[in-house]
Amino acid sequence: MTNDNGKPYLVLISIHGLIRGQNLELGRDADTGGQTKYVVELARALGEHPAVGQVDLVTRRVIDPAVSDDYAQPIEPLSANTRIVRIDCGEEAYIPKEQLWDSLDSFADNLIHFIKQQPRRPALIHSHYADAGYVGTRISSLLGVPLAHTGHSLGRSKRRQLLAAGHSKEALEARYNITRRIEAEETTLGVAERVITSTHQEINEQYALYDHYQPERMRVVPPGTDLQQFYPPTGDEFHTNIAAEVARFLQDPGKPMILALSRPDPRKNIAQLVSAYGESPELQQLANLVIIAGNRDDIREMDTGAQEVLQEILLHVDQYDLYGKVAYPKHHQPTEVPTLYRLAAFSQGVFINPALTEPFGLTLIEAAASGLPIVATEDGGPTDIIGNCHNGHLVNPLDNADITDKLLRVLTAAGQWQTLAANGLQGVKQHYSWQAHVEKYLEATRPLLEQAQASPPIPARRRKQLHHDRALFSDLDQNLLGRPESLTPFIQALQANRKCVLFGIATGRRLDSAMQLLKKHRIPPPDVLITSLGTEIYYAPNLLPDSAWELHIDHLWNPRIIRRTLSGLPGLKLQPNNEQSRFKVSYFIDPQIAPDLQHINKLLHQEGQAVNVMLSFGQYLDIIPVRASKGLALRWFADKRDIPLERVLAAGGSGADEDMIRGNTLAVVVANRHHEELSELALANAEGIFFATRPYAEGILEAIEHYHFFQACEVAAP
């Protein structure tokens, strides 16, 4: 190591937000949240390690009467060898991070001046977020000091989320400087010799979107957990307000507790958990179910997604007559969350996270630190956590039998509960405490500290296919699932080209049903999932719903009038509730006795209902908003991702797929799907539609050959 005392001098850079050593103003605004807490705790923990000499946490100096004078102090000691250093950054006032870009060169120059005044040169610079990455690359290049980087949040993922929320591309540039941010991230990833992430999924699914994707330089170092706040029960938890609030729901509050804690978000899959519990008399006999799903005063005043989740939970409680067995308190304080974990642990219960996907799983670590075994979704970060701690079981979140089985294993296996609880406590201490975090951090950065000289940056390997200039969409059931042996070569071809081709599923199924089939048949998670006949759009990696699409299709939609208008018609019968959704009214239809589609449309028009009426396979009738369909959802997605329709290959075959394969898309109808509903297309030999001679996934591969669809992916970028 390069320092005189043999212990390295580390410089952490975190520019935006309000950073101080005590009383962090977490949640004050979008810039003062988890990152500010993380960098302060990281600096402290590094400074306490005997192998570290000096730690400087460098941030922006703010001189503004609207904020505390603390943020104007140039130096704030945190310990004997750790301090916060505040550097002038052009504008003195406190402003959002998106407005800092033009001041970052000034910040970098001032920081170089500060470093040159120090008695020794840093052994490592660690930048946090894109703005610090921009500064870090300049400092690293000028001083020849190795650079490590943590993204915290990535611009490419952020852009997807904001587009899904309805923001225009122009608005993203005006408000978020999103292109500038992504360019800074690309440069940083090209220079950084170590990228620190929280999970393997972050590496594989988020950083993989970048040209400078260098997984060999990336290391997973999970965040630390505050073991002063989360610890095993002491016995006095039952004398708290939150314990009384939970107990008032339950006939026998002394039973073991199955605890679920999350936002009321459809992706958290809480209603499925209630369904599994309701279907298991054994679980109901053994344990109470406690659901902490945010805070609410009136469900009717919450956003639509939260309303649907909470209403579905309440309906399941009523359907299975779970009164006295399920608690779902309306309010809790953040400070009561550790008590809830300890209550569950004291009862010898279990914590469950049944989310459809979970990028990290902080609640699982908190539960483990509280001495509570866990059951968690097999999708995402929980795989790492349970693999490290051996304190629970992974579960298919869409399989009630699997959920029930894993919960019963924890609750009934002789001696297993104590073993899992002990494993969790030890695993958190070993892998997820701040001390463990620092040990892994130093292990990950040791080669950089020992070389003491930055390696030359690796030139970007420009992979234009990364930007996904084409997309392949397929229906699910008949297109992909009819012949399992033909699915394997299709998946292999798709995976070989996923860097340049976006993969989408467009199905009439609901999200949970579609996810269940994807998992069952080991189909790679799609980049975009269009469900419920095009009324819902979800984006990878976290199944982010396209809320802008929901607002768009809500135009003139009134399902109550639709059901009333069609009530009593011969040959029509409503499908079960699990096939209905907010934007889809679904019937079984007997064409022999039911009115034809023209008459059904006429009845709806007479009631002022402008809708799309879909007939599939001669037996399913679906009514959806006039602005919704598989084809319209596909085009909405293609427009947002700037993919020309001429580079979209759509595979379909039923009447519900017609507008997806008509028009300017490349299209294929596989051999088993030459359904009579599309007979006119076949007779007309419709331009742009390829009628495959082979069935199922083989027919899609035949179309890929026919259109030379993957050819561009095979050409090396210059």
List keywords for this structure.
718 residues, alpha/beta, eight-stranded mixed beta sheet, 27 helices, globular
Provide the helix percentage. Answer: 25-40%
Mean residue pLDDT: 87
How many angstroms does the end-to-end distance come to? 40 Å
What value does the Rg take, in angstroms? 28 Å
Structural class: alpha/beta
Taken as a percent bin, the fraction of beta residues is 15-25%
Instruction: Count the DSSP helices.
Output: 27
> What's the total number of strands?
26
- Unreliable stretches (pLDDT < 50, length at least 5) are 462-466
Largest β sheet strand count, sense and barrel closure: 8 strands, mixed
Rough outline: globular
Strands ordered across the widest β-sheet: 3-4-2-1-5-6-7-8
